[in-house]
Design brief:
This protein is of the alpha/beta class. The protein has nine helices and 14 strands. The protein has a seven-stranded mixed β-sheet. The structure holds zinc ion (2 copies).
Length: about 270
């Protein structure tokens, strides 16, 4: 392989927010950065994402691509603030693609209008704050079972058992010769081991420990019992809830087989 090839450069994952919807343990809600081959991806945009980016000294305008798993607030409520940032503080110089499940665009536009009534991203060309940004934004719907290629990144998805009627996605992101699978929020899904197979990193939600009866989130005992089914280099548990954190001392093997995420964690692939 040519030593200067793009595949020689590592893929770096930064976990900005490893908490659940309740910010358990003071952790930030969902937000991840993936850097590879000159492309910067924001995966999930929890309410705090703008502050998290600035704290990590990651310029919001440096994001090339956004990928969103589902429409719950702990995964998208930071988008209106990012849009505000792009309207006023750091105008985008490049088009920005936002990949996510159906209805993401309406939901984000609705949130922006609700929170900042003078802004409107839904009418490019009209005289409203946000017109310039609307020209640069491109929402792309990712349906379960499909793949999208954007910015040297291939994103595949399956539906996760988490929301109805809204669609929640588990995501498989291939970039620069590496593959990251993100469960999104999900109950146990028999399709997940096959979807994860061969990935370099599996970021898997783990909200509960004792509450094993819930079918719309994953719990630690179930994941630990099924660890062998996941043929993956490294498995990191995230979206950690109160129950998991209170059992932390029983869990963390620290060897990559089933580690716990923390805010600010960096993973090089
Ligand atoms: Zn969530
Ligand atoms: Zn959710």
């Amino acid at each position: 392989m040519n030593s200067n090839s793009a595949h020689d450069t590592p893929v770096n994952v930064t976990i900005l927010g490893s908490g659940d919807a309740f910010a358990s343990g003071g952790r930030a809600q969902s937000a991840y950065i993936i850097d590879a081959g000159g492309v910067r991806i924001l995966l999930e945009a929890g309410p705090d994402v703008l502050r998290l980016l600035k704290k990590a000294e990651i310029p919001p305008s440096s994001i090339d691509l956004m990928i969103i798993s589902h429409l719950h607030g702990d995964h998208i409520a930071g988008l209106p603030f990012l849009m505000l940032e792009y309207m006023w503080e750091s105008p985008l110089k490049h088009p920005l693609t936002v990949i996510g499940p159906r209805h993401l665009e309406e939901r984000v536009n609705g949130l922006v209008r609700l929170l900042y009534p003078n802004a409107d991203l839904s009418k490019p060309g009209k005289k409203a704050t946000g017109t310039e940004l609307a020209r640069k934004l491109k929402f792309v719907v990712l349906e379960p079972g499909k793949k999208i290629r954007a910015k040297k990144v291939t994103v595949g998805a399956i539906r996760s058992p988490h929301t109805k009627p809204d669609i929640s996605l588990s995501l498989r992101i291939a970039i620069n010769g590496k593959t990251i699978v993100f469960s999104g929020d999900s109950g146990w899904n028999d399709a997940l081991p096959e979807f994860v197979r061969g990935a370099d990193l599996f970021l898997c939600e783990c909200t509960y420990f004792e509450s094993k009866h819930l079918t719309f989130h994953l719990n630690y005992p179930e994941l630990a019992a099924n660890r062998d089914k996941f043929d993956v280099g490294r498995m990191v548990l995230t979206h950690l809830g109160r129950e998991v954190l209170s059992h932390k001392h029983e869990i963390n093997p620290g060897d990559g087989s089933l580690d716990l995420a923390y805010d600010g964690m960096k993973i090089e692939l």
